[in-house]
Amino acid sequence: MAALDQTQVKEGVDQETVDAVREVGTYKYGWDTDIEMEYAPKGVNPDIVRLISGKNDEPEWMTEWRLAAFERWTKMEEPKWAMVHYPPIDFQNQYYYARPKSMEEKPKSLDEVDPKLLATYEKLGIPLKEQMILAGVEGAEDAPAEGRKVAVDAVFDSVSVGTTFQAELKKAGVIFCSISEAIKEHPELVKKYLGTVVPVSDNFYATLNSAVFSDGSFVYIPPGVRCPMELSTYFRINAENTGQFERTLIIADKGSYVSYLEGCTAPQRDTAQLHAAVVEIIVEEDAEVKYSTVQNWFPGDENGKGGIYNFVTKRADCRGDRSKVMWTQVETGSAVTWKYPSCILRGNESQGEFYSIAIANNYQQADTGTKMIHLGKNTKSRIVSKGISAGKAQNTYRGLVSMHPKAKDSRNYTQCDSLLIGDKCGAHTVPYIEVRNNSSRVEHEATTSKVDDDQLFYCRQRGMDEEEAVALVVNGFCKDVLQALPMEFAMEAQQLVAISLEGSVG
Amino acid sequence: MTRSPGTRIRKDNVLTWLGYALPVLGGLLGVAYVNTHYMEFINPVWAVGGGAILGWIIARLIRRLLG
Question: Band of the pLDDT at A366, cuts 50, 70, 90?
């Protein structure tokens, strides 16, 4: 790429073409928004916890909850068991709260909105109609919506900038708002469910999140309601030296259904940034939740410099009988990924599904997998994990399937495939299986394969270049998981998979 | 081979044809069921075999009723 920078552009070649060539193999969302920000002082201590709580105008019980979490966190140690290596994180040398100054007060018209904020949404590909709502313009929600309907909650650094289609969702009884808003508007629901799936003391990063989470999304689907549109949250880290700690709480009451998608991006920087999120899902009797993630944080440059350290705790509790939860994730970004979306199958005949693609290129490290904890009778789970390693990356699948004594006649099927591209990367599989009754059945299949020269030769014979050939092989490898994504995002994810592996061959 | 305008479809031919077609259709439905109800963890061999046998039984019943 340096050579390209030094090359003089010939006459007749337009700048757009030069920029397009330059962008090949680079992170598409690596730009940042030059916007005036308001920061909390660096570091984390009880005063910072109180300050974050104060900024969100939270009630006293919430502040106390956060302080109790912080107290626990100070006594905890960072987990070292994962197969990821990174320099020690200085938790006192980063900002825990950053928000655009223009978001101090909600703008009333488009003219009042910071144009840079609007330009950011446009560049990220959020539809123009929704921009007005995301920018918080009053009345924009009532205008008729065009095209596909996806309600978006946009989180920019530490704050939720806005949530679209709230009024329309409210008509169906669905509550979709930022968690800071939910704490004020629906304290009874938040108090009842927050921390019941991922307890405050769950793990080091979840406890830190409980103390300093600044915003996130809240979803409540009332009994018997099928959510009329897809819900989604878009996380953007923009500020330098700032961690993002968001919290998502989804409650699907009896007989309800919701499909939720989250996406995330961050600017390209030389220094690593921390992202520690917690997602809690409560699924009641006969309810169903589909949770999809397209994770595209900055993965670091080709020398492993910079990137996001992504430490996430995601868990769904299938409390009611016949409840269902489905996790689908496409993990292409992050320098370090530490993430194990789990299902607690408590209700009888409840079902949990987990589909994952984890792509690690250059110096990326991913330690990801799932936990399926079978507690109820006739519970069923299915795990399909696809790990792709290229460059000097390390990819680990770590999974737990636990059949408890009361989980009679339960079933699990696990398929864990790894694909290696090149000879310097690694794929590791660490499955844990615990069966404590004699009527349950657990199946585990695992394969490790390489994109071999024969496959590439066969494709190249038919006029494809090497990159296209690899993309074709990889897309075939990932097909099972891509099919599980909502239709609107499957194509996007497929392209992302191909882009993530650009430059990995040759 | 073209059929002459006066030739009618013979019942025997249809019944013979059903004897082959329904087991095949049953097997295909078994495959479709396994794929759409993957969380029931049904062995595809049983689903295809069961579907085919069910199709054969239905074909026999039809033959008995109409034959």
Answer: very high
Strand partners, A205: none
Q: Give the Cβ contact number of residue A338 at 10 Å.
A: 24
Structural domain boundaries in chain B? 11-66
Residue B9 in contact with partner chain A when CB distance is under 8 A: no
Other CB atoms within a 10 A radius of the CB of residue A16 amount to: 8
How many whole angstroms separate alpha carbon A448 and alpha carbon A271?
33
Q: What is the pLDDT of residues A119-136, one digit of tens each?
A: 787 787 765 455 555 555
Give the residue from A380, A412, A443 with the most B CB atoms within 10 Å of its CB, the best one to mutate. Answer: A380
Q: Which residue of A has its CA nearest to B40?
A: A380
- Chain B residues near residue A411 by CB distance under 8 angstroms: 41
Measured in angstroms, the CA of A329 and the nearest CA of chain B are apart by 19
Contact A378, A352 (CB under 8 A): no
Label residue B15 exposed, middle or buried (CB < 10 Å: 0-12, 13-18, 19+): middle
Residue B35: its chain A contacts at CB < 8 A?
A: none
Q: CB B41 to CB A413 under 8 A?
A: yes
Which residues in chain A touch residue B40, judged by CB atoms under 8 angstroms apart?
380
| Calculated CA dihedral for residues A79, A83, A87, A89, nearest 10 degrees | -30
Q: What angle do CA A409, A351, A216 make, to 5 degrees?
A: 150
Strand pairing of A175-178 and A215-221? antiparallel
Q: How confident is the model at residue A2 (pLDDT cuts 50, 70, 90)?
A: very low
Q: Model confidence over A420-459: pLDDT tens digits?
A: 988 889 999 999 999 999 999 999 999 998 887 888 899 9
Tens digit of each residue's pLDDT (9 = 90 or more) over A147-202: 557 888 888 888 888 787 888 899 999 999 999 999 999 999 999 999 999 999 99
**What pLDDT shows up at residue A164?**
79
Identify the top-confidence range among A23-32, A201-210, B58-67: A201-210
Q: Cβ separation of A351 and B38 shorter than 8 Å? A: no
Q: State residue A423 phi and psi, 5-degree precision.
A: -115, 15
Instruction: For residue A55, give both structure tokens.
Output: 């900024």
Tell me: ipTM over 0.90.
no
Amino acid at A76: M
pLDDT value at A10 more than 80: no
Q: Please tell me the distance from the alpha carbon of residue A188 to that of residue B18, in angstroms, as a whole number.
A: 63
Q: Where are the domains of chain A?
A: 29-501
The reported pLDDT for the residue numbered A129 is 52
Pairing of strands A336-339, A288-295: unpaired
The answer to whether B41 contacts A353, with C-beta atoms less than 8 Å apart, is no
Could you give the CA distance from residue A283 to residue A297 in angstroms, rounded to a whole number?
Answer: 28
* Interatomic CA distance for residues A251 and A222, integer angstroms: 8
